[in-house]
Write a structure and sequence with these properties.
single chain; 439 residues; alpha+beta; 5-stranded antiparallel sheet; 5-stranded mixed sheet; 14 helices; 55% helix
């Protein structure tokens, strides 16, 4: 049976029932009573329909708060269908909300910023990374024109000219961004931002490193080639001059060898696939060897003392020897004759620490923050005179990073310097028969 038949059958039955009641009234009380009965019955049915219509109107205004009655007659089926449509609509809304939440969560985890705009560039949504890149605030800026929020001439030109084939490279504050606008649907546009600040800085560091390394290698190579040309063009040079030239070439060759070795050490320390291989580091023995080497380097020009009052460590013995030796060697090189250098290994409340203290020339404050940069020298002339490569403190920094240690530099011009290395307590070895597998 069709839905139309199911709707009309109850209506016809109710009309027949009214007609039957009117017939009985006519037989029992006359025509007037029959019409009164019919009027009251029709009026009652109309009031019932109006009541249901009123209930339906209230429910449509606030379907979440008001519940429909079960209904009577055709209203039962109508209300049942409305309930079913309401449940389906609510399910679709929940699914849509869930998918929207997943979409926003996924967009929030992207490594790039994402901004969704309409066809006239009004902001509709953006992820947190886009807020950070473009200095936006979704709660505050939603519904505003993006070109009014990002006041950069090159950005506005890129948006207005519509040349989206190539991305835009721009600097916003301290960040360098790559921006790409992608048309989306007919009335949407997606703006993607990629932060290349670190990559650009790394690239600049790499270029500086190559330039500095080339510059450092050029001088000894020039010296060696110059003497070789002299030797080739003047074979009758006296023995004393030849020996002098050979000594200078040997010194320059050793300088190049030291530079290459330091660069290889830095490369190895920075390699991700070259983790620290932990071992028991006998700190006292290591520092005694460094003290002997520094005394030999000083040739009696300095007073070098050693005080050990700390525990052994877990770490790389070779790397720590390199870091400690670099700090002590620097102290020897930059302390005038007759100066004093103290090498200290002691316990501290935050863990053991290594200190190299001297009464040398000291370092100006503006140089301290840059000391661990590659090839950075406070006094380039003095560094070359003492055979420094300019990479020692850079090696120290990377070794300490691999051992989760921190370097602090205290210095005063004319008074001396103190290089303090603080190690974490977890690297201390209490039971020398147990060496953990990793740091």
């Amino acid at each position: 049976m069709s839905p139309r038949s199911l709707f009309w059958i109850p209506v016809i039955l109710r009309l027949l029932l009214v007609a039957f009641a009117m017939g009985l009234g006519w037989v029992w009380w006359g025509s007037t009573a029959a019409f009164v009965i019919g009027f009251i019955a029709v009026l009652g049915l109309a009031l019932i329909q109006l009541q249901y219509l009123y209930q339906l109107s209230l429910w449509l205004e606030n379907p979440d708060q008001i519940k429909l009655v079960d209904g009577f007659g055709a209203w039962t089926d109508i209300f049942a269908r409305l309930y079913r449509l309401r449940r389906e609509d609510q399910k679709n809304r929940n699914d849509l909300a869930e998918w929207l939440s997943r979409f926003r969560q996924a967009m929030s985890l992207l490594p790039d910023g994402v901004v969704i705009m309409d066809d006239v560039l009004f902001l509709e949504w953006c992820n947190p990374l886009a807020e950070k890149h473009l200095r936006l605030n979704l709660d505050r800026d939603k519904g505003m024109r993006v070109t009014n929020l990002i006041r950069s001439p090159e950005f506005i030109d890129y948006i207005i000219l519509g040349k989206y084939e190539k991305p835009l490279s721009m600097t916003l504050g301290e960040r360098k961004l790559i921006i790409h606008l992608i048309p989306f649907e007919q009335s949407r546009q997606i703006l993607v931002t990629h932060d290349v600040t670190d990559a650009d800085r790394l690239d600049q560091t790499r270029r500086d490193f190559i330039a500095n390394a080339s510059h450092e290698l050029r001088t000894p190579l020039t010296v060696i080639n110059g003497f070789l040309e002299i030797a080739a063009s003047q074979p009758d040079l006296d023995l004393e001059t030849r020996i002098q030239h050979l000594n200078l070439m040997t010194a320059q060759g050793k300088r190049m060898q030291n530079l290459v070795e330091d660069m290889l050490s830095l490369t190895r320390l920075e390699a991700i696939d070259h983790p620290v291989r932990p071992e028991l580091v006998k700190v006292e023995m290591l520092l005694q060897q460094i003290q002997r080497d520094s005394i030999a380097l000083s040739s009696g020009r300095h007073e070098i003392t050693l005080r050990v009052d700390g525990p052994d460590l877990m770490g790389s013995s070779d790397e720590l020897h390199s870091a400690f030796a670099n700090l002590v060697t620097n102290a020897v090189r930059y302390t005038p004759d007759g100066g004093k250098i103290d090498i200290i290994w002691e316990n501290h409340i935050d863990g053991p620490r290594f200190i190299v203290r001297d009464n040398g020339i000291g370092i100006r404050p503006e140089h301290i923050v840059r000391l661990t940069e590659r090839f950075y020298r406070v006094d380039k002339g003095r560094s070359r005179e003492t055979q420094g490569t300019g990479l020692g403190l850079a090696i120290v920094k990377h070794v300490l990073l691999r051992h989760q240690a921190q370097l602090t530099i205290d210095s005063e011009v004319g008074q001396g310097s103190a290089f303090i290395v603080q190690f974490p307590q977890k690297l201390v070895i209490t039971d020398q028969s147990f060496i953990p597998s990793s740091i």
